Amino acid sequence: MKVPEPLRGVDANVVLRYLLRDIPEQAERARVLIDSDRPLGLTAVALAEIAWTLAGPRYRHERGIVATELIELLGRENIVCVGYERAEAQAALLACTSDGGAASLGDALIAACTRSAGLDEIYSFDKGFSRTGLTPIRP
Predict the structure, then answer these.
(1) What is the residue range of 108's domain?
(2) How many angstroms separate the CA atoms of 122 and 50, rounded?
(3) Is residue 49 part of a domain?
(4) How far are the Cα atoms of 15, 24, 108 from residue 78, in angstroms, in the given order?
(5) Is residue 21 situated within a structural domain?
(6) Count of structural domains, the chain
């Protein structure tokens, strides 16, 4: 009988090498790890860092493409969401893929964590927060 491996967190830089394939040796090591059956814990902070890096000034990937890549990553059986619900994160990221009025990646991840905690309202000056599925309340 195979003993299950312990859950270990995965840093944003490992996932970035996997997605970007920009540093060949690291990209291959990341691929072997992420494509394995090992359970990998992915925090919301790491997910936000990945989103910011891909969509940010260096790589400039379109928000909808980044959201789609993250939805697919979260769909992997070996990815364990740490501190938030997988379905909430995927639903929130889906709100980033529409052409008109799409949510920001950051707002989507805030919404995923908020809804995962059982909340459906958020204090915000951003009236567009409703795109994430949360009800914004002006402070």
Answers:
(1) 8-137
(2) 24
(3) yes
(4) 13, 23, 22
(5) yes
(6) 1
Contact (CB, 8 A) for 14 and 33: yes
Which residues lie below 8 Å from residue 52, measured CB to CB, with a gap of 6+? Answer: 105, 106
Q: How far from 48 is each of 71, 94, 110, CA to CA, in Å? A: 13, 15, 9
Predicted TM-score of the model (pTM):
0.88
Q: Please check whether residue 3 lies inside any domain of the structure.
A: no
Q: Collapsing DSSP states into helix, strand and coil, what is residue 75?
A: coil
Any idea which residue has 């860092």 for tokens? 49
Query: Taken in order 34, 39, 42, 47, is the CA torsion positive or negative?
Result: positive
The half-sphere exposure of 96 on its side-chain side, counting CA atoms within 13 A, is 27
- Report pLDDT digits (tens) over 57-91: 999 999 999 999 999 999 999 999 999 999 999 99
